[in-house]
Design brief:
The chain is an alpha/beta fold and 484 residues long. The protein has helices at residues 48-67, 70-86, 88-97, 102-119, 158-169, 184-193, 211-217, 230-241, 265-277, 297-308, 330-346, 357-360, 381-384, 400-407, 423-430, 465-470; strands at 16-18, 21-23, 28-29, 43-44, 127-131, 135-143, 146-150, 173-177, 202-204, 223-227, 246-250, 255-259, 287-293, 350-352, 371-374, 391-397, 412-413, 415-419, 437-440, 455-456, 459-460, 473-481. The chain has 16 helices and 22 strands. It is globular.
């Protein structure tokens, strides 16, 4: 498709998007660029009245949107994808200001486009589940109504798009509630949507921490899809119970990676290092606990340290190949800082790193040295808790039974991986891991066609793929006699 200027936006001012109108509020707030500590452009602080107006518009738009043939809905989503592409550099710059080096920000915009393209290709067909001479029974999937996506700050564009695309494709209307730390990208996406979707179909509201509870309590919202911490996810689920909203929760993780003694270090170490420190450790499915067989532990650890030392860290103004960002916000910075303080308090042995860069004066912003903890105990906080920052424990293991017991000894169960040159052995181990996504010789190998969700306290339900699309639908059984 030839490029046009029809979808070009001004990226200097930001508004709520309600019923395809740009709305300001009496009170505004600013997020912070975590690499410079400079304020970002002001965004609205929504009130209950704004929430009521958006939900009312979404409810009013639902009958016509859900009755629109799916191919027409898909065509509009594809136009939306083209519009994002047309503003690619502007979205990259905005994501960078919200917390990432431009290279990493560009990857997120590209993955967002790819994810939406894949999602819009999915289709839910009616299923015949029983047929006799007298009747035929089918299962159909019908849209729920008004859906709300509560989106986290670590991938504010990609993770929101992973909810938006399937929700709209299934025939729901959708309201995007971004994190207060990364609101700007979402508001521009919704503004772009005003040029493509009918009024009320796609809206976005920014605000303070009280905005999410306004949506979870609203009686006309039919589904909340939340990505964030387990503690907040429990509050979301409890709030939705009074109105029996459908809920999808993608929550925290403490992903284990098990490295066998037969791996090729040159191939495996770079992949493990990247998927442990990707986005500065701020990915729910980053490797958080690394188990390395005792026979290769020393050699693996040495090469891991060597690899991590080559990583280039930077922020919104670092264009020379930096890929790894600072911690995104002060709240998370303080949490990670407390974990770093345990190094001295608990006597952990560091293989590399261990300092808070911002305090040392080497960088302005929420930076830490990428840190590897050498063989801490299973009871230590760095093993038991998800740090969500650039600090990784590496531990020795000796037997399959032992390492599986340790890997599964967590209330989390989002992702896990096994690394071995013996694929049969790797699959045998992988099938015993208690996690929603398990990979062999890879980690974070995510796909919009593959459902994503967790075991235990890592969540309920799934996003992505056909299963994720079904999560945006009611299930209806329809039994039809063959003779009147």
């Amino acid at each position: 498709m030839a490029a046009t200027t029809d979808y070009k936006l001004d990226f200097t001012t930001f508004y709520n998007v309600i019923n395809n109108e740009l709305k300001s509020t009496p009170t505004t707030r600013t997020a912070t660029n975590p690499s410079t500590l400079a304020p970002l452009p002001a965004v609205p602080v929504s009130t209950q009245a704004d929430v009521d107006a958006a939900v009312s518009a979404a409810k009013a738009a639902f009958p016509a949107w859900s009755a629109t043939p799916i191919e027409e809905r898909a065509a509009l989503i594809n136009k939306f994808i083209d519009a994002i592409q047309e503003n690619f550099s502007e979205f990259t710059g905005l994501l960078a200001a919200e917390g990432k080096p431009p290279t990493a920000a560009g990857f997120e915009v590209q993955f967002t486009i790819m994810h939406l393209k894949a999602s819009v290709s999915l289709r839910l067909e009616e299923e015949v589940v029983e047929e006799t001479d007298e009747k035929i029974a089918k299962v159909r999937y019908t849209p729920l109504g008004v859906g709300v996506g509560i989106i986290p700050w670590n991938f504010p564009m990609l993770l929101g798009a992973g909810k938006l695309g399937p929700a709209l494709l299934a025939g729901n209307t959708f309201i995007w509630k971004p994190s207060p730390y990364t609101p700007n990208t979402a508001l521009k996406l919704a503004e772009l949507g005003t040029k493509i979707f009918p009024p009320g179909v796609f809206q976005a509201l920014s605000g303070e921490e009280d905005l999410g509870p306004m949506f979870t309590a609203h009686p006309d919202v039919r589904k909340i899809s939340f990505t964030g911490s387990t503690a907040t996810g429990k509050k979301v689920m409890a709030a939705c119970a009074s109105t029996l909203k459908r809920v999808t929760l993608e929550l925290g993780g403490n992903d284990a990676a098990i490295v066998c003694d037969d791996v090729d270090l040159d191939k495996v170490v770079p992949k493990v290092a990247l998927t442990a420190f990707n986005n500065g450790g701020q990915v729910c499915v980053d490797i958080k606990r690394l188990f390395v067989h005792e026979k290769i532990y020393d050699a693996f650890l040495a090469k891991l340290v060597e690899t991590v030392k080559t990583f280039k860290w930077g922020g919104s103004e670092d264009t020379e190949g930096a890929f790894f960002p600072p911690v995104q916000n002060q709240m998370q910075f303080e949490k990670v800082k407390d974990m770093f303080a345990q190094i001295e308090k608990q006597g952990w042995k560091t293989a590399t790193g261990g300092a808070v860069e911002a305090e040392a004066g080497d960088k302005k912003g929420y930076y830490f040295q990428p840190t590897i903890i050498d063989n801490p105990s299973d009871e230590s906080r760095i093993v038991q808790e998800e740090p969500f920052g650039p600090i990784l424990p590496v531990q020795k293991w000796s037997s399959e039974e032992e390492v599986l017991k340790r890997a599964n000894n967590t209330d989390m169960g989002l992702g896990a991986s096994v690394w071995s040159s013996d694929l049969d052995k790797a699959e045998r181990i992988a099938r015993k891991l208690e996690a929603g996504s398990v990979w062999i010789n890879n980690h974070q190998d995510l796909s919009p066609f593959v459902p994503f969700g967790g075991y235990k306290s890592s969540g309920i339900g799934h996003d992505w793929g056909i299963i994720g699309l079904k999560g945006w639908c009611n299930v209806q059984s329809l039994t039809i006699p063959k003779k009147a």
